[in-house]
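User: Please predict the structure of the protein below. I'd like the answer in structure-token form so I can feed it into my own downstream comparison script.

Assistant: Understood. Taking the following sequence of 669 residues as input:
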Amino acid sequence: MNFLKMKNNMSALSIIAGVIILLSVSSLKAQDKDPVILTVAGEEITKSEFLNVYQKNNVNGEVIDRKSLEEYMELYINFRLKVREAESLGMDTMQSFINELAGYRKQLAQPYLIDEKMNRTLLEEAYNRKKEDIRASHLLIKVDKTATPDDTLAAYKKVMSIRKQAIKGEDFGMLAEKHSDDLSARDRDVEGRKIKGNKGDLGYFTVFDMVYPFETGAYNTKVGEVSMPVRSDFGYHLIKVTDRKPALGRVQVAHILVQVPAGASQADSITMKAKVTQAYDKLKNGEDFAAVAKEFSDDKSTATKGGVLPWFGANRMIPEFIREVSKLGQIGEISQPFSSSFGWHIVKLLDRKEIGTFDDNLTELKQNLSRSDRAKKSEDALVSRIKDEYKFTQNQKAKNEFYKVVNDSVFSGKWNASQAAGLEKNMFTIGRRGYSQQDFAQWLATHQRQITPENIPAFVDRMFNTFVTEKLLEYEDSQLEGKYPEFKSLMQEYRDGILLFELTEDMIWSRASKDTVGLENYYEANKNNYMWGERADVSFYTLKSSDKKLIDNLKSSIKKGLTNTELLEMFNNDSTTLLTLDQQKLEKGENQDVDSMMWKKGEMKDSLNNASVVITHINDVIAPEPKKLNEARGIVTANYQDFLEKEWIKELRNKYPYKVNQEVLSSIN
């Protein structure tokens, strides 16, 4: 393996992955009829283990043959020897190695610490919702997620009372303006500016635009209906769905805005409508949209750009805008003028990106899911499975005893675990692992922070549930190697790969770059391996003139043997530069003009280029000779690294005993 190439072109993780592909270690261990094929420094590798490694590396699916097996065996021996050397040097006990491996393990464990069935359900649900845009209004009655049962009940009764009024036909927008704790529902002053209330209208939105409970409530409500109260971390919501339509996807449009200023009179409104009608008439008559936008649009930030807006989705524009854009079916289609609170608009559809298939969206859906509050459902499903699998049991009385030892100091981050002194009971058991009241007390003390005071029993219950979930996931994490052979194998691969990378860095890569004396000695001993071919020492003279006398004068001066300095002084002065030159040593194939010459000392060729002439002169023909170290440093360094590795392998093979069971190797078909 060319580790230099890997180092120069890949990250450490990529290098480790490359090592894994070539020299991965199976987790399969010796079984009754699985003979040992190789022993390295006391470590036994079975036939099935070696075959698994070989076949994993045989990416082209070639038929197993004796030669390839033997060649791979040699590589595998070298790999095991290097790992053994790293272990003997204690590299596997260094904190930097432990931390790095732990970081990789955390990443590798993530796919095993999710509930695949629930995740798939959530991904499919999200995709199905993405296919539809919803417009809805809401009314919020705030209640903290940690509120007491009495406060929660009071909020629920209040929101149900308002719902009854909406069901009886009272205007939902008026109810939101009057009762909603979402301040955007009402007109308000913000930093001296009058902001008009939306009466609860949220416009259009789609999946992942809202918190999950609200999103679910909206998608489960029919157009024109008012939902039952929906609980989120903000409180209780009533949701009235006012429109549902196929997803807009993402679009790019150009627009013309004729703005109606605040406080405009009826006459002003008539004038603005006449202006937008005039613009629309021009468009109907075939005039260019960009030109009309520049002439009529009051959106000065886009008017000079043809009215073009950035790409957007359904949740990025006012609902009137989204509704009209959604009606445009063909690229290039132009809407009729329509009004909004901003004024009059005309829109031209420039491009559209449909939402695509489930597979098209899968990567983005997974990313959004991991950041969404709905990921808690996947975690809850996993926790439930873990409880069932490992026979989780809980001592409710042991938890309830904390109601008496936790006080309000915990809300300022000052509660001390010593206040739970004397509590020693087991609180819950997972598998063979039990967690005591003291375990919870220590955990609670380290996880407390300044928060708004709440009901003590409710707080203890919430924190205990978090503690249980954390410990269950930790327990499942600790079982991964035993439950999943492929995970154990992968961890072994990463472990050995990191060790191999670090050791090779120390023994080969860094050494080759720092050992200048060794590199020079290697070069001197092998410099005839780094030869130049026959080269021409060539001068290129560029004369900025087509005057024949000047050209002939230059040629004559070159033939006479004038130096480059003399030539430059002859043709140039402080105000004029007629002559420039470039001198190079070239092998065959590097310059077509030079290749076409006879390669004789003193040979000259000229070529016209517009108002200039280029004279090519062969100063000398140089016989093949070794390259200097600075001319071949890259390849010399690479070869020196290969040399160092071969010498290192010899040392390791002398240092550690190894033995191949040829009979077992020969038994592989």
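That's the full token string. The chain has a mean pLDDT of 90.
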